[in-house]
């Protein structure tokens, strides 16, 4: 528990006090936000706001994690390193995209397929590296099975090592690209993606800590609830990593909330999406991500539905603009109102996910 508290505190303090320094640096480097011409007119006033803020909370999260390891004398474990590695890897892809926008002085950076190719590479490395570790109980950070709240009876390795490994990598790539792009799409209003990510990543931190307290083969698990214990790899380390990210995001939100003094950019949104995907994989709750990150699913779904309807009807639209938060902007809702209400929706989705997680444990215990 000390490690969780230290990681969150260090991440929070770093971003809370360091973000203004990064804002000044980014302005000096002329790393300002470019606004899409077809976006809401009210966003044009945000042009030039410091961007690439994902750099700040990514550094804060990594710093919080390693300081916690030093304070508690617990060496970093593969699970936590994989989560942070995925976050950093996709943040680098996002940084390249953000830097190209600044360099070309437009709202478009690297091509969509190039960005996806980078996500595929990072997710593939995550999957392959995760299969190389195993603890004394024979448990790996990454399971070869599809999971919901625990592993389901769908094991890719039942098809053979080669075919199973390929399918597992493809599965993790799909989860990663979908989640990182969903967070990226949601990042359209001041503080929206930051607050929603705090809720979702914090939920996975709770799940990881619960798994630590109910870990199979430990004295903490009473014989009466052995049937409900969890076979996961270093869940406390995952909880520490999640706490470091949440703490860093809370400190960043102080400066990112409306009116934002800094935007996270693709550097932040892709990195956070990667962290969410990694947390779902290492906690064996991949399909539960649909509930925990429900707001991201709804936001991305609004874009997909809008495009399909537009093509089928020859130019008609369901929403005034997608993603759906822009629809409410054009209907006259204040930006802060939309953000807070969407945070509430994110919280409801996360509560449903956590409720399902606990209900499953309770039914077995």
From TrEMBL:
Membrane-topology descriptor: Multi-pass membrane protein
Quick one: a GO cellular component term? plasma membrane
PROSITE patterns to which the protein is assigned, alphabetical: MRAY_2
EC number(s) from the headed UniProt entry = 2.7.8.13
Q: Where in the cell is it found?
A: Cell membrane; Membrane
Q: Name one GO molecular function term.
A: metal ion binding
Q: In which pathway does it act?
A: Cell wall biogenesis; peptidoglycan biosynthesis
What's its catalytic activity?
UDP-N-acetyl-alpha-D-muramoyl-L-alanyl-gamma-D-glutamyl-meso-2,6-diaminopimeloyl-D-alanyl-D-alanine + di-trans,octa-cis-undecaprenyl phosphate = di-trans,octa-cis-undecaprenyl diphospho-N-acetyl-alpha-D-muramoyl-L-alanyl-D-glutamyl-meso-2,6-diaminopimeloyl-D-alanyl-D-alanine + UMP
Q: Please cite one Gene Ontology biological process associated with this protein.
A: regulation of cell shape
Name the cofactor(s): Mg(2+)
Q: Predominant location of this chain?
A: membrane
Annotated positions binding Mg(2+): 184, 266
Q: Which InterPro entries match?
A: Glycosyl_transferase_4, PNAcMuramoyl-5peptid_Trfase, PNAcMuramoyl-5peptid_Trfase_CS
Q: Which keywords does UniProt give here? A: Cell cycle, Cell division, Cell membrane, Cell shape, Cell wall biogenesis/degradation, Magnesium, Membrane, Metal-binding, Peptidoglycan synthesis, Transferase, Transmembrane, Transmembrane helix
Tell me where the transmembrane regions lie.
Answer: 6-27, 48-73, 79-96, 154-179, 191-212, 232-255, 262-282, 288-310, 338-359
Family, as annotated: Belongs to the glycosyltransferase 4 family. MraY subfamily.
Fetch the HAMAP family from UniProt. MraY (MF_00038)
The UniProt function text for this chain reads: Catalyzes the initial step of the lipid cycle reactions in the biosynthesis of the cell wall peptidoglycan: transfers peptidoglycan precursor phospho-MurNAc-pentapeptide from UDP-MurNAc-pentapeptide onto the lipid carrier undecaprenyl phosphate, yielding undecaprenyl-pyrophosphoryl-MurNAc-pentapeptide, known as lipid I.
Which protein is depicted? Phospho-N-acetylmuramoyl-pentapeptide-transferase
């Amino acid at each position: 528990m000390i490690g969780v508290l230290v990681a969150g505190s260090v991440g929070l303090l770093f971003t809370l006090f360091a973000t203004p320094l990064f804002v000044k640096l980014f302005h000096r480097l002329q790393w300002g936000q470019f606004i899409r011409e077809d976006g809401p007119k009210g966003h044009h006033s945000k042009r030039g706001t410091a961007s690439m803020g994902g750099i700040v909370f990514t550094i804060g999260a990594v710093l919080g994690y390693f300081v916690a390891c030093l304070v508690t004398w617990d060496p970093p474990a593969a699970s936590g390193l994989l989560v942070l590695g995925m976050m950093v890897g996709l943040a680098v892809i996002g940084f390249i995209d953000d830097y190209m926008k600044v360099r070309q002085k437009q709202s478009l950076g690297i091509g969509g397929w190039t960005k996806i190719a980078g996500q595929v590479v990072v997710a593939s490395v995550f999957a392959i590296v995760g299969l190389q570790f195993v603890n004394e109980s024979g448990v790996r950070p990454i399971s070869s099975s599809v999971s919901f709240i625990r592993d389901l009876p769908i094991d890719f390795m039942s098809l053979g090592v080669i075919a199973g490994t390929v399918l597992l990598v493809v599965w993790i790539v799909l989860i990663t690209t979908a989640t990182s792009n969903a967070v990226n799409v949601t990042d359209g209003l001041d503080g929206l993606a930051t607050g929603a990510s705090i809720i979702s990543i914090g939920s996975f931190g709770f799940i990881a800590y619960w798994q630590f307290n109910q870990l199979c083969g430990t004295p903490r698990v009473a014989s009466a609830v052995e049937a409900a214990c969890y076979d996961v790899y270093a869940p406390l380390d995952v909880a520490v990593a999640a706490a470091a990210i949440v703490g860093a995001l809370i400190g960043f939100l102080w400066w990112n909330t409306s009116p934002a003094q800094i935007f996270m950019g693709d550097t932040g949104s892709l990195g956070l999406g990667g962290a969410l995907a990694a947390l779902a994989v290492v906690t064996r709750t991949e399909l539960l991500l649909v509930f925990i990150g429900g707001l991201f699913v709804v936001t991305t779904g609004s874009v997909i539905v809008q495009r399909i309807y537009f093509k089928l009807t020859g130019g008609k639209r369901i929403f005034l603009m997608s993603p759906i938060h822009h629809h409410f902007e054009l209907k006259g809702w204040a930006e802060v109102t939309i953000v807070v209400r969407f945070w509430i929706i994110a919280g409801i989705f996360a509560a449903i996910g956590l409720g399902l997680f606990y209900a499953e444990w309770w039914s077995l215990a």
